[in-house]
Amino acid sequence: MSEPNVEKNSTSRTEVSSLLEINRDPLRKGKLTVGFIVAVLFILPIIWMLLVSLKPNGYSTTNPLDWFLPPFTFTNYIDIVVDSLIIRWLFNSFLVATITTILTLILTSLAAFAISQMKFRYKNYIFIFFLLGLMIPGEATIIPLYEIVKSLNMLDSYTGLILPMIASPLGVIILKSFFDNVPKEVIESAIIDGCSNFKIFYKIILPLAKPAMASIGIFTFIGSWNNFLWPYLSILSENLYTLPVGLPVFNATYSQAYVLPMTANAIASIPVIIVFLIFEKQIVKGISFTGIKG
């Protein structure tokens, strides 16, 4: 009975000491104040956007504070959803980003597993080839990429939007470095038990690589969702626009107005904000994971 009490006492002492260290920090109040100010600066534009989107159509004012005061209405949201293609663009962005993320994870994980765990000639040179891919900016490959997609008759299609974006040298490098740290004893015991390479990959490697896969998936989804240049060049039909392409086209028709463009931007932003609030911990872990070597 004495050992649990000792453990409880030691735990309570460490908690008290950590609280004392926090309270003794002379810069604690200053850090909290700066953090609060920065948070307000980031949140204020979002609040302003949402409030402006609730104003009656055609509303204008010379006093900035009037945007934060009534009247408010949801009529703009109904009009935008009914009279524009923004829901279609939202669906296109979600579909393209989701499929791109899935295919990228499949291809990068298979390539990284082959380079890390399989033995074949020139695999070190192939890995160097992936490293060199990080040195080439995406804009430099736009023209040849456009010519290839055009010759394959994939312009103005979902296929043309998705396939050119699934190559991820950074994903291969991150996963390869992660797979290298998998204990060799685990792989050797699986081989002795008669596991094939695919079974080792599916049953052993992938479950261990969930943090790395999550971080790559998060950044791939965000990159595809925010991608403007390639959808702008490869898509001609308005029905196939993604949000980064469709929103500027919509806003250009209301260059002298605030309310309807803000309503469209709010409709495009609300799903992203909700997803961020739901998966906040996973996103932070993914960002922190990419900054940890090994």
Describe this protein's structure.
The protein has about 290 residues and is mainly α. It has one domain (about 85-290): MetI-like (MetI-like fold, Orthogonal Bundle). The chain contains 15 helices and no strands. The model has no long low-confidence stretch (mean pLDDT about 85).
- What is the CATH architecture term? Orthogonal Bundle
Q: For the terminal residues, how far apart are their CA atoms?
A: 42 Å
Mean pLDDT: 83
The count of helical stretches stands at: 15
Counting structural domains, the number is: 1
CATH class bucket: Mainly Alpha
Low-pLDDT runs of 5+ residues are none
Main location: membrane
GO cellular component, one term: plasma membrane
Organism: Sediminibacillus halophilus
Protein name: Multiple sugar transport system permease protein
Question: What are the key terms here?
Answer:
about 290 residues; mainly alpha; 15 helices; single chain; MetI-like fold
Helices and strands, with pairings:
Elements: H1 2-24, H2 28-53, H3 75-83, H4 86-117, H5 123-133, H6 142-151, H7 158-162, H8 169-180, H9 184-192, H10 197-208, H11 210-226, H12 229-234, H13 243-252, H14 259-278, H15 280-290
Write a short abstract of this structure.
This protein has 294 residues and is mainly alpha-helical.
